[in-house]
Hints:
Blueprint: E1 3-7, E2 19-21, H1 62-65, E3 79-82, H2 84-90, E4 98-107, E5 116-130, H3 136-145, E6 162-166, E7 172-179, E8 181-185, E9 191-195, H4 197-203, E10 216-218, H5 221-231
Amino acid sequence: MKAMLLRVGIDKSSDGVLAPIFLDGGFEYIPLSEKDEKSTENRTYHDLTGTNGKLLSSYLPSRVAQRKVHLDPEFTTFTYGDVGRKASYLLKLDPGDLLVFYMGLTPLKAGGYPEALYITGYFTVKEVLDFKNIPLSQVKEIQEKYPHNSHLKRRSDENSMVLVVGDSEKSKLLDKAILISAKKLNKLGRAYHAVSPSLEKLLGIKGSIQRSIPPRFIEDPDKVDNLRELLGLYLL
Length: 236
């Protein structure tokens, strides 16, 4: 078994904002906005309700709130898809592996958790579908089976997408975020997000995790066990 850590969610480079983290460590998963103008996705942030019962648009400036969403990953049927370089990494996953998602979160109110990167959910991989090897008729069936995922609504990706499907009983959007980063300074004195010292020791990964590419793989069995315990998987 191995694990892959991948950054997802709305961020400052995509939409200029981060999703909120609350005083109790709870958070809202807010996906980034849809950039593909030919996508058939019609939902905006005004159409999605967060875990606190509020519309996701209530956490966003009006200029962002009206945008269409790119809901990927989605935690209803537990799917995540991508194309290109990121898809090539997804193809390295096998059934039973962990796909762990982390996000940039910012405190909704002062005095709480810091603005940083946090683990917010995970899939236990059930299957990995490579659309390059799937007939178009079956692709249509997959799109109908998983209607919540915005990436499946990008018609331009029908022949090149890789879709990870999680085991619904062993995949979860977390209730509380898990801090994974600490701010460090580069040679020019600019701050960036790197793996925190405690997580570096626990998981065996280090360095900048500010960008989603390349994702981080954990293959040492002991480190994967540490990650499983951190996620509460041993409680299942």
